[in-house]
Structures are given as C-alpha cells and as structure tokens.
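Notes from the 1:1 (GR / supervisor)

We went over the backlog. Supervisor wanted to see one worked example end to end before approving the batch request, so GR pasted a single chain during the call. The sequence is below; no edits were made to it. Supervisor asked that the structure be written out right there so they could see what the output format looks like.
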Amino acid sequence: IDQPGLPLLEGALRKFPNLRFLGHSQPFWAEISGDLDPAQRNTYPKGPVVDGGAVVRLMRQYPNLNGDLSAGSGHNAVSRDPNFGYAFMTEFQDRLFFGTDICDPRNDTPLVDFMTDAVEGGKISREVFEKICWRNAEEMLGLEHA
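Structure output shown during the call:
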C-alpha cells in the first residue's frame, strides 16, 4: 500500500540500502508510466509507456529495487509498449525476475511467450532472457548453475 509516485517505497529503499526489495502487483507496475491516472493503479493500464514513471526512476536511483515480472501486472508492464519493454528488460536485466505459481502446464504463461518471441526476434539478447528467467534467481539464492 503506497501513494501515487511510490513515496513510501522510496523512503524504505533509502532507509534500507542493503535490503533487496522485490516490486510486484498492479499498483507497483502501473507506476512504470509517467502518465498514470491514480484511478488505474489497481488495473492493467494499456497504451504506450510515457517517460517519468516512478518505477523506472526508482530502479535507476536505487540499486536495491528489483522487479518481479511473473504476474499479469509484470507482463502488462513490459508488453503494453513492447519497444519500451525490451529496453526496460535490457536496462534492468540484472534486477528482474520471472517466477510463477502456475503448476498446470496447460495454463498460459504470457510473459514466457512474450520473452520467447522477443529473444527469437532479436529484440532482447539470450543473456537478458536467461538472466530474467533463472540466472538472477540463482544468483540471489546463492545457487550454482548446473
């Protein structure tokens, strides 16, 4: 729970610089665009991402802020404006994570499809894809890549 512009998150990021924060949810990811209407904070905003979004500003300013792309809100944040999304994933490739609670392989995972299409189409590198999909989680958890 935070206010538009995420000032409470920013205060926590500043106060605890050695603690890794993992941003997630509609109110967090909706703040990726600078033109956010506060009434849309709990939704999946559509259309191009406008410069000046709180998420981008905070990620650039605070290296302890990470992003969880696993839910519909994370997928929406990077896919609503694909060219923005590719650039965002590339810029923050070391601090973005994919995870899922989908246990049935018959269920859709649209972020996986979006990222697979992006790497196959040359929009993101294989390295960016691998970091977001598993390497960042391995590093954070102290696991070795097999």
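Supervisor's comment: The helical segments are 7-15, 26-29, 54-61, 72-79, 82-91, 110-120, 126-141.
Batch request approved.
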